[in-house]
Design a protein that fits this description.
Shape: flat
Oligomer: single chain
Helix content: 25-40%
Strand content: 15-25%
Order of helices and strands: HHHEEHEHHEHEEEEHEHEHEEEH
Number of helices: 11
Largest sheet: 5 strands, mixed
Mean pLDDT: 88
Structural class: alpha/beta
């Protein structure tokens, strides 16, 4: 068994934050993904790296020895992949970037902060709009690139795309819900329970597609464009929902707990990626932005050196 950069990155995040839940939020992944990666890393190294406490997790003696080496590995990899144009002090220009709602709220902000620090001469003009509007703007040349849910992309004849991050969809439910008794559930198990349907960014269309494919129908009691409304209602026990790890948080705004369970079959991931006009040639500024997003999504883009 080999060690992966993901395992190292997840360990560093958990060690520095002191909580698996906080590391999961920072990494935009589920808590189980962080826990599994760290357990795999511990298995390879043959030593426990973190121990659980009532307050969260703390680094063991072995973990304390490994932590500076792990951070050095991540730093060295980030430095190694920087192509000459990734040194952004001398690059100037304007990039017109389209974004969809979910991307602008749950994926892009931390990456933008690091991008601006690395490329002070590049101005990003951000334009938030639904997917059909962004697709038309790309084809018309009104946008240079978009960061969007490419899993929903329709005009693939004229628009090229690249996946940056796949975010699994899981069942969200309140502690104590009957379905929490199992680690994995099927759509048929979910069907009888009240369901909260998110509609923003075509979430309803995507959701109904996999429900229909399974020849099932959710018992929808409420439809909303607000992720926070769904989060609060799930935590309060009003119903369940299926949403991506990217928008998952373990707590609602009023501090109530939210749990997740794996869906056994038929539920696709939510794929965030870059989209641009096919055969269009990017200038240096647009190329730098696109490359930075690739490295950022892989967890390898850091602050300026």
């Amino acid at each position: 068994m080999s060690i992966s950069l993901k395992q190292i990155r997840y360990f560093v995040a958990a060690a520095e934050s002191g909580r698996i839940s906080r590391a999961a939020v920072e990494l935009n992944v589920s808590q189980s993904a962080v826990t599994t990666a760290i357990q795999q890393l511990e298995a390879v190294l043959g030593a426990p790296l973190l121990e659980r406490t009532p307050q969260g997790v703390r680094v063991t003696i072995e973990g304390g020895r490994f932590l500076p080496q792990a951070k050095q590995i991540l730093s060295s990899v980030a430095e190694a992949i920087r192509s000459p144009h990734m040194s952004g002090d001398q690059i100037a220009g304007r990039v017109r970037v389209g974004v969809t709602y979910t991307v602008s709220g749950y994926f892009l902000p931390p990456h933008l902060i690091r991008f601006y620090a690395n490329y002070p001469g590049i101005t990003l003009e951000l334009f938030e709009a639904p997917r059909p509007v962004l697709e038309q703007a790309i084809v018309d040349g009104a946008l240079d690139v978009a960061v969007m849910l490419v899993s929903n992309l329709e005009n693939r004849e004229h628009i090229a795309s690249e996946i940056l991050k796949r975010s699994p969809r899981r069942l969200w439910l309140a502690p104590g819900h009957p379905l929490t008794r199992a680690d994995r559930v099927a759509l048929a198990d979910v069907e009888p329970y009240p369901y909260l349907m998110l509609t923003v960014d075509e979430a309803k269309v995507t959701s109904m597609r996999y429900w229909v494919n399974a020849a099932l129908e959710p018992r929808v009691i409420y439809r909303t464009a607000s992720v926070e409304a769904v989060r609060s209602m799930v935590a309060a026990g009003m119903g369940v929902t299926i949403l991506s790890d990217m928008v998952y948080r373990p707590w609602s705004l009023d501090g109530q707990r939210i749990e997740t369970r794996v869906i056994d079959e038929g539920v696709p991931s939510m794929d965030v990626g870059l989209a641009w006009k096919r055969d269009a040639k990017a200038d240096a500024a647009c190329g730098a932005f696109s490359d930075f997003m690739r490295y950022a999504a892989a967890g390898l883009a850091e602050g300026p050196h």
